[in-house]
Write a structure and sequence with these properties.
The complex is a heterotrimer. Chain A has helices at residues 6-25, 31-58, 67-83, 87-94, 96-99, 102-115, 121-128, 134-154. Chain A is mostly helical. Chain C has helices at residues 29-32, 54-72, 93-102, 115-128, 143-150, 208-226, 243-256, 268-271, 287-303, 321-325, and strands spanning 6-7, 11-27, 42-43, 82-87, 106-108, 135-141, 166-167, 170-177, 186-193, 236-239, 265-267, 284-285, 309-317, 332-342. In chain C, strands 1, 2, 3, 4, 5, 6, 8, 9, 10, 11, 13 and 14 form a twelve-stranded mixed beta sheet that branches. A two-stranded parallel sheet of chain C has the order 7-12. Classes of the chains: A mainly alpha, B mainly alpha, C alpha/beta. Chains in contact: A-B, A-C, B-C.
Chain lengths: 155, 116, 348
């Protein structure tokens, strides 16, 4: 490994000193506030999900299957609120509290499809829908595949 | 009682996401991907199922449950139809969620406009 | 032997300072309701103004700003030798399409948010160099177009940190010439300092201020040093869009090198919005930021003789979504343009 030149060393030192200055002067992310709000909003959305689940059981769904219409309903709500231009305000307020539940997944897909609508239905809406949410599907599927392979080999 | 458990577990999973976003340079996409993978791994280890039984929607609503559904779908298909299950079973259980997102997303995108 | 009009390392001096014959600005609704309300020529009622997309709105905004400025000067597109224009979008489409409709020979530029200063400085060089009698410098930016290109879809529920900035929806145009037909004093460009690309390793695309501050400090120090100026030479040193974070960092960097400007240094990103009541986080950003403040409020101050000497320091972050995803840091640049209220004169 080549030894750093004097210029590179000086640059590194400058960068470090500057980074320290930035950390001192820059407005801090209100982590405590964000965590509390994320907890409350995320918990609240989960409770809504729980209520919906019990409602669907009442409507005749078997208990293990009640998760499907619940998730679909939450996705529908988040999609509509995204279209109405309300979800981004909730997202700014609640951060992961809105983004981690499946509602965040719906918002990622809908907001992307909506934004690129002006590029047309096929190349805009169609192609861009998975731009933000794609990684979740890709890595979820890859994980499931690997877990499946491990299980198949071990059994 | 189930409401309290759902609230706490759902809230805590969101807290993990929030801490990752605020304390690391990871983007939201990275954080959600990590959570899905975690859900899948915990599911494969047989740990996520009991969490769902205990906390109900608190475990079903966060994106981690998506990883759980993908894994459980794979394992079920594996048990039923053999090795091809690792390909054919992945989206079995998660299908309604993904399809809902695609279809509802499409209609909302067609009917509304971004407001900025 | 340095170039004839070069002073110091990076500055040029104009032998016949180039006049701002007229200026005009067009903005969106949020800017129109801000602290500088009343200083803009055109205020759009919403982000689209009847167009089919934000991109189409932005180019119309630039075109209308240019037309308005030309009208104020009693000049036409045919009088313009060049249009130096740029914006934040890929391939600078706002400038390209606006120039297509205006029919002025186009020199397209990309300096990110520093393009207003860059285009004004270059236009002055063309005029003082005898290559043009009149030129128009124009830039634009739009919240919707820049969000969807650089960051996230506008309806995405992501959470922005408090040090992020809000892209100004606005366009500004400066018509430059010698103003010989004009009675009285005009704001004239006396010097231009071209900046070097500076990079101190900042990586967060939501924190442009701290990435750009070193570039701003570098160019300001270079300008003052090249011309051997005292700290109180300018009534105002106006940076483009450092906003709250970048502004305080630049102050500190300058102070460390012995240059203390205090209230003489302000920032367009902090002037154009009221951070306390508008949802703009740490302040405004974008090409349009420095453009609409310069072409409206600042030129008004010159007209009322409230300003005699101004140094505009446009600041730009030269990243793209690709470089960010590939793990690169954010290189930045700052260009300085010196304005002075004076009569037409030849210096040599």
């Amino acid at each position: 490994m080549a030894k750093k030149t004097k210029a590179e060393q000086r640059k590194q030192f400058e960068q470090k000193a500057y980074n320290q200055m930035v950390t001192k002067k820059r407005a801090k992310i209100p982590i405590a506030r964000n965590v509390i709000v994320a907890f409350l909003v995320g918990g609240f959305i989960s409770v809504i999900g729980q209520v919906l689940m019990m409602l669907f059981v009442r409507l005749g769904f078997p208990e293990e299957k009640a998760g499907d219409p619940t998730v679909a309903t939450l996705i529908l709500i988040a999609s509509i609120l995204t279209g109405l231009g309300i979800w981004d305000i909730l997202g700014q307020f609640a951060g992961a509290g809105a983004g981690v539940p499946v509602t965040g997944f719906a918002n990622a897909m809908v907001s992307s499809a909506l934004e690129f609508k002006r590029e047309g239905l096929v190349l805009g809406v169609g192609a861009r829908m998975f731009q933000l949410a794609g990684p979740v599907i890709v890595y979820g599927a890859v994980t499931a595949f690997l877990v499946g392979v491990v299980h198949a080999v071990l059994m | 009682m189930i409401f309290v458990k759902a609230f706490v577990v759902g809230g805590l999973i969101c807290v993990i996401g929030q801490l990752l976003m605020d304390l690391t340079p990871l983007t939201p996409a990275h954080v959600l991907t990590l959570l899905v993978i975690s859900g899948g791994v915990l599911s494969g280890l047989g740990l996520y199922g009991p969490l769902v039984d205990w906390a109900g929607a608190g475990a079903k609503v966060p994106i981690t449950s998506f990883g759980h559904q993908l894994v459980q779908g794979t394992l079920a298909e594996l048990a039923e139809s053999g090795p091809m299950g690792v390909l054919s079973g992945i989206f079995n259980l998660a299908s309604s969620g993904i399809t809902a997102a695609i279809v509802f997303g499409f209609f909302v995108a067609v009917l509304f406009n971004p407001k900025g | 032997m340095p170039a004839r009009k070069k002073v110091g390392l990076q500055t040029v001096a104009f032998s016949r300072p180039v006049a701002v014959v007229s200026s005009a600005s067009a903005v969106g609704p949020l800017e129109g309701e801000g602290p500088l309300s009343g200083s803009f020529d055109i205020v759009y009622p919403d982000m689209l103004n009847g167009e089919a997309s934000w991109e189409k709105t932005e180019r119309t905004m630039m075109k209308e700003a240019v037309e308005c400025a030309l009208g104020k000067a009693n000049l036409t597109c045919e009088n313009m030798d060049y249009m130096l224009a740029g914006d934040l979008l890929n391939q600078c489409i706002s400038a390209n399409f606006a120039a297509r409709d205006l029919g002025i020979p186009l020199l397209g530029l990309y300096g990110a948010c520093s393009t207003m200063a860059e285009s004004a400085g270059l236009a002055a060089m063309l005029i003082d160099g005898g290559y043009a009698l009149h030129a128009v410098a124009a830039v634009s930016s739009h919240y919707g177009t820049s969000e969807r290109q650089y960051r996230f879809p506008t309806e995405y529920g992501g959470q922005r940190p408090p040090y992020s900035q809000y892209t100004v929806t606005g366009a500004g145009a400066l018509v430059l010439g010698h103003g010989q037909h004009f009675q009285g004093q005009l704001a004239r460009i006396t010097h231009f300092t071209a900046g070097k690309v500076t990079d101190l390793g900042r990586r967060d695309p939501f924190d442009m201020g701290s990435a750009m501050a070193p570039a701003a400090a570098d160019t300001i120090l270079r300008h003052f040093s090249d011309l051997s100026l005292a700290p109180d030479h300018y009534d105002l040193v106006l940076t483009g869009d450092l906003a709250l974070v970048g502004h305080s960092l630049t102050e500190e960097l300058l102070r460390q090198q012995g240059l203390v400007l205090k209230e003489r240094m302000q920032d367009c990103g902090l002037l154009v919005f009221d951070r306390t009541r508008q949802p703009v986080f740490s302040g405004g950003s974008g090409c349009g930021c420095s453009a609409v403040v310069l072409c409206g409020h600042i030129m008004d101050m010159f007209k009322q003789a409230k300003l005699k000497r101004l140094l505009l320091v446009g600041t730009g972050a030269l990243l793209s979504p690709t470089t960010f995803q590939q793990g690169d840091s954010i290189p930045c640049i700052a260009h300085a343009v010196a304005f002075e209220l004076s009569d037409d004169r030849l210096l040599e």
